[in-house]
Design brief:
The structure holds two protein chains of two kinds. Chain A is mostly beta strands. Helices cover about 0% and strands about 50% of the residues of chain A. Chain A starts with a strand and ends with a strand. Helix content of chain B is about 0%, strand content about 50%. In chain B, a hairpin with an 8-residue loop joins β9 and β10. Chain B is globular and about 40 Å long. Classes of the chains: A mainly beta, B mainly beta. At the A-B interface, β5, β6, β10 and β11 of A face β4 and β5 of B.
């Protein structure tokens, strides 16, 4: 079974700063997907960024980028030029890529607060 | 635009009641999922379904059952609600072969008193 660990329950930074959320995982699979999801207060879960394990290049989506270290089983999310709207719960998640019907395995989440 | 809808945003039920949480998706997705979200525990998979009338247990199925009579609808059933089932319930769906693209509903916050 896979496990996903987010060691930072809460983080707080000033607007415009850069913040990094950490995530580690454990799996015996060689190919898989990793995700960062954002859940704003009282709002829907949305996908921020995803990474396929066999791709060495780190994924980037505008201000969001990941540092994927496969050997270390680490998948951190960097948010540059943070904005008030980035305040949310952030979840790291794992999925096998074997084509099965399985759901995602989530970490416990990091509550990110962007201060004005 | 993919849409996953859940029948209620907020629900209050009494201990022992039978509770139905409904989820509907409009993109002909084969796979559907029910998760439970609790503070400090993240999201945990309760049940999932990969086809009509098919269901598989997730990590925490105890106290729950599911029904999938139509492809677009996946119901979570609490046969006899208990206070420890007070939680946020999230439904999700995806196409069978698009593992990397799971869509979530808005969630139902269930309180059992």
């Amino acid at each position: 079974a896979q496990t996903v660990t987010q060691s930072q329950p809460e983080m707080s930074v000033q607007e415009a700063e850069t913040v990094t959320l950490s995530c580690t995982y454990d799996t015996s699979e060689n190919n898989y997907y990793l995700f960062w999801y954002k859940q704003p207060p009282s709002r829907q879960m949305i996908l921020v960024i995803r990474q396929e394990a066999y791709k060495q290049q780190n994924a980037t989506e505008n201000r969001f980028s990941v540092n994927f270290q496969k050997a270390a089983k680490s998948f951190s999310l960097k948010i540059s030029d943070s904005q008030l709207g980035d305040t949310a719960m952030y979840f790291c998640a794992f999925s096998n890529s074997g084509g099965g019907a399985d759901g995602l395995t989530f970490g416990k989440g990091t509550h990110l607060i962007i201060q004005p | 635009d993919v849409k996953v809808t859940q029948s209620s945003r907020y629900l209050v039920k009494r201990t022992g009641e039978k509770v139905f949480l409904e989820c509907v998706q409009d993109m002909d997705h084969e796979n559907m999922f029910w998760y439970r979200q609790d503070p400090g525990l993240g999201l945990r998979l309760i049940y999932f379904s990969y086809d009509v009338k098919m269901k598989e247990k997730g990590d925490i199925p105890e106290g729950y059952s599911v029904s999938r009579e139509k492809k677009e609808r996946f119901s979570l059933i609490l046969e006899s609600a208990s206070t420890n089932q007070t939680s946020m319930y999230l439904c999700a769906s995806r196409q069978r072969d698009r593992i990397y693209e799971q869509y979530f509903g808005p969630g139902t916050r269930l309180t059992v008193t």
